[in-house]
Amino acid sequence: MNRRPVVLVIAGSDSSGGAGLIRDVQVLSDLGVDSLCAITAVTAQSDSQVRAVHLMPAELVRAQISAALATRPVDAIKIGMLGNRAIVEAVAQCLPARTAIPIVLDPVLVSSSGGVLLDARGRTALLEKLLPQSTLVTPNVPEIAALLGSVEMHGLGQMVADEDGHPDVGAVLAVHPNCIGPTRPNRPIWSSSATKRWPA
Questions:
Q1: How many domains does the chain have?
Q2: Residue 73 and residue 5 in contact, taking contact as beta carbons nearer than 8 Å
Q3: Could you say which of 137, 170, 189 is where a domain stops?
Q4: 54, 90, 146, 164 — which has fewest CB within 10 A?
Q5: Mean of all residue pLDDT scores within the chain
Q6: Domain enclosing residue 108, as ranges
Q7: Which of 133, 125, 135 minimizes the C-alpha distance to 95?
Q8: Do 96 and 191 reside in the same domain of the chain?
Q9: What is the pLDDT of residue 72?
Q10: What is the pLDDT of residue 141?
Q11: Cβ distance 174 to 159 under 8 Å?
């Protein structure tokens, strides 16, 4: 009997169920993939607002990741909300090399309702510590602009020029946040690894 693939999800909870660790686990289950979890934050969210955020102590996040990796073989790691610099650094210190296990980083900066989910020092640490360790980074266009410290970008040429000056990463897949819906799935608009472009 073949072993089911296993993904370690490192992320925050979203009480609305629309994003975060709960949503990741649901999608993985639908794909026939088992999940291990490390919770970075507990959030109280509705569809329209973030009401409260409680970040886990960095040492607890580190302990969760260590325990999960010791439980059984992990085939990939998915990273979502981290919250602050201490958690970013704790996660970075626990990760295996990206050549050993694929690591997907979704740089969660704000909620869909506008609540801040990673502070400024955390964003700096994410760029310095986690991007170089990631196999694939999946920001949307506003997240790229925020991480690069530039204004909202309108041209793919400008996106490529801005991204080139930052730390090495396996690949970047940019998605447009407004291309989501029953007939318009979240659509990639730029991929760094193969330099493919799709109209948004």
A1: 2
A2: no
A3: 137
A4: 164
A5: 78
A6: 1-137
A7: 133
A8: no
A9: 93
A10: 73
A11: yes
With a pLDDT cut of 90, the percent of the chain lying above it is 40
Whether residues 129 and 33 share a domain: the answer is yes
Report the 3 state secondary structure along the chain.
CCCCCEEEEEEEEECCCCCHHHHHHHHHHHCCCEEEEEEEEEEEECCCCEEEEEECCHHHHHHHHHHHHHHCCCCEEEECCCECHHHHHHHHHHCCCCCCCCEEECCCCECCCCCECECHHHHHHHHHHHHHHCCEECCEHHHHHHHHCCCCCCCHHHHHHHHCCCCCCCCEEEECCCCCCCCCCCCEEEECCCCEECCC
Q: Are residues 30 and 10 in the same domain?
A: yes
Residues 38 and 115 in one domain: yes
Do 117 and 31 have their domain in common?
yes
Same domain, 150 and 116: no
89 and 129 Cβ atoms separated by less than 8 Å? yes
This prediction has a pTM of: 0.78
Return the pLDDT at 1: 61
pLDDT digits (tens, 9 = 90+) for 100-145: 899 999 988 876 666 678 888 998 899 888 888 888 888 877 777 7
